[in-house]
Amino acid sequence: MPTEMVEEGAMDQADHAMGDGIGRATGTIRSVGSQGDFLTIEHGEFAGDIQMGAMTMGFDIMGEVDLSGFAEGDEVAFMVKQGRDGSYRIMAICNTAEEGADCLDGMMDP
Fold first, then answer.
1. Which domain of life is it from (predicted)?
2. What is the extent of the structural domain holding 70?
3. Alpha-carbon gap, residue 67 to 36, rounded angstroms
4. Is residue 44 in a domain?
5. Of the residues 16, 80, 89, 107, which has the maximum number of CB atoms within 10 A of its CB?
6. How many domains does the chain have?
7. CATH number at residue 66
8. pLDDT value of residue 5
9. In a domain, 104, yes or no
10. Given a cut of 90, is residue 108 above it in pLDDT?
């Protein structure tokens, strides 16, 4: 999974402990995968169980997450789950410009 540093001191995802942590962040979509199952997001620091600083990185999706309404440049709030393999997958995402800054609230509890 590609990782691009946005600022000096940002942590690489390989430096995180493996587990089943869940975290939230906000950011800007930089690209949408051609199959509609992958996003590259420039995000801020995560809140929750995942300790990750600001960076740009790619995320797969979980289950029935529908990315069809999202495009490059969209401002989003999203929740990810870290799998046992260390990868991070989006489990919920919403457009903050259209749905408000607290749009993840009520979608699911972390």
1. Bacteria
2. 19-99
3. 6
4. yes
5. 80
6. 1
7. 2.40.50.320
8. 36
9. no
10. no
Q: Give the residue from 12, 58, 13 showing the smallest Cα distance to 35.
A: 58
- Other CB atoms within a 10 A radius of the CB of residue 31 amount to 14
- Please report, for residues 23, 84, 99, the alpha-carbon distance to residue 104 in angstroms, rounded to integers and kept in the order given: 12, 24, 9
Residue 105 within any structural domain of the chain: no
Centre a 10 Å sphere on the Cβ of residue 12 and count the other Cβ atoms it contains. 13
Q: Give residue for tokens 């401002």.
A: 75
Q: What are phi and psi of 96, to 5 degrees?
A: -70, -30
pLDDT score of 15: 42
Whole-number pLDDT of residue 64: 86
Strands (E), 1-74: 3-4, 22-32, 38-43, 47-48, 55-61
Residue 28 domain-assigned? yes
Q: Is the pLDDT of residue 14 over 60?
A: no
Per-residue pLDDT tens over the stretch 89-106: 999 999 999 999 899 986
pLDDT higher than threshold 90 for residue 18: no
- Provide the token pair at 109: 């509890």
